[in-house]
Amino acid sequence: MSKVTLGKTGITVDKNGFGALPIQRVTFDEAKKLLRKAYEGGITFFDTARSYTDSEEKIGYSLSDVRSHLYLASKTPAKNAEGFWKDLETGLKLMKTDYIDLYQFHNPDFCPKPGDGTGLYEAALEAKKQGKIRFIGITNHRLHVAKEAIISGLYDTLQFPFCYLATEKDLEIVNLCKEREIGFIAMKALSGGLITNARAAAAFLGQYDHVLPIWGVQRECELDEFLQFVKEPPVMDEEIAALIAKEKQELSGNFCRGCGYCLPCPAQIEIPMSARMSLLLRRMPSAPYLAEEWQAKMERIENCIHCNHCSDHCPYGLDTPALLRENLEDYRTFLK
Ligand code: SF4
Ligand code: SF4
Q1: I need a labelling partner for 148 at 20 to 30 A (CA). Which of 16, 63, 219, 296 fits?
Q2: Residue 57: domain span
Q3: For the chain, first and last CA: distance in Å?
Q4: Residue 233 resides in a domain
């Protein structure tokens, strides 16, 4: 069984964290069934966020009686100390706990530091002093913020997208965390649904002994697969290496990761799906995307007012309006 220790925190868990974003989409009782099964299957690291609507509440609802056997991680998107305290107190109440093991700044576009005028880092330190959080982390999609956070020495963990489509620059971040003994939590190990071979994804991450993947779980069959990976970790063999090489070729360059940081769109375009429709059509069963509902959604791209809100907020520096246009044209051709 493979275990991971997060940097210097002493948090050692199965190489299998539960990403609690997708449980927003199921009922409280369905969420409880999944969370209990995960816990009973050996998962002890649960990662949620104040921004994931009722996810913190579902964790409290499902796991409060076994709280002392778990590590809970959550996040705040607060921009100032007041927002930080409000989010932290809400999270504690909803998760029915008096401490959160790892509290993370949720994808800020800068690296919070003491004295930066936001009061965020000072608030986190005070929360730690009061015993309301045990460790301070940061999540990010931006290479420069991630690097600054590592070098600052202020953070116990970094949560960053990492999957087998990673670039050399992403790998540099992963390796730097190892060198500096900062816990590395891998998000988007399935690249927002574009990677459909979870076995290959797990075999890739298995090569990095300091990396803790958190898998977004919505269905029981997905959970079963991830639990199996801990019992029998997939290993990188020639077949998986060849598959990854082929996928890297197909998905190279600037593709949309479906992260949603470009929203909201004033033209109501569902950017995270629409900007990667060409890939979804070819990599997933295409029928649902070709139904009338999706045809109408794709046609909304025509209503783009070129405000550039999306491209200004895309952490991958994509020219989102152009990418949407390309996807619409391809979609129309595909439909024919
Ligand atoms: S540029 Fe177009 S797609 Fe992007 S946010 Fe504005 S309206 Fe929406
Ligand atoms: S366009 Fe950029 S910000 Fe929007 S979903 Fe895709 S990758 Fe994320």
Answers
A1: 16
A2: 3-246
A3: 50
A4: yes
Ligand nearest to C-alpha 269 = 1
Q: Is residue 48 part of a domain?
A: yes
Per-residue pLDDT of the chain (336 residues; tens, 9 = 90+): 589 999 999 999 999 999 999 899 899 999 999 999 999 999 999 999 999 999 999 999 999 999 999 999 999 999 999 999 999 999 999 999 999 999 999 999 899 999 999 999 999 999 999 999 999 999 998 888 999 999 999 999 999 999 998 888 899 999 999 999 999 999 988 877 778 888 999 999 999 999 999 998 888 988 999 999 888 889 999 999 999 998 888 776 678 888 788 888 999 999 999 999 998 888 777 888 999 999 999 999 999 999 999 999 887 889 999 999 999 999 999 998
Q: Is 305 in the pocket of ligand 1 (CB under 6 A)?
A: yes
Nearest CA to ligand 2 atom 6: 256
Specify which residues 135 forms β-bridges with: 102
Query: Quick one: which ligand is closest to 323's CA?
Result: 2
Q: Which atom of ligand 1 is nearest to the CA of 271?
A: 3
> Apex CA 67: angle with CA 156 and CA 50, to 5°?
60
125 assigned to some structural domain = yes
Whether 306 lines ligand 1, by a CB cut-off of 6 Å, is yes
Q: Are residues 160 and 300 in the same domain?
A: no
Which residue reads 């029998």 in tokens? 232
Separation of CA 246 and ligand 2 centre (Å) = 23
Question: What single-letter DSSP state applies at residue 109?
Answer: S
Total-model pTM = 0.85
Ligand 2 atom with the shortest distance to the CA of 272: 5
CB 174 within 8 A of CB 180: no
Ligand 1 atom 7, closest CA: 304
Going by their DSSP bridges, the two strands 3-5 and 12-14 should be labelled as: antiparallel
* Mutation test residue for ligand 2: of 107, 142, 187, 271, the one with most atoms within 8 Å of CB: 271
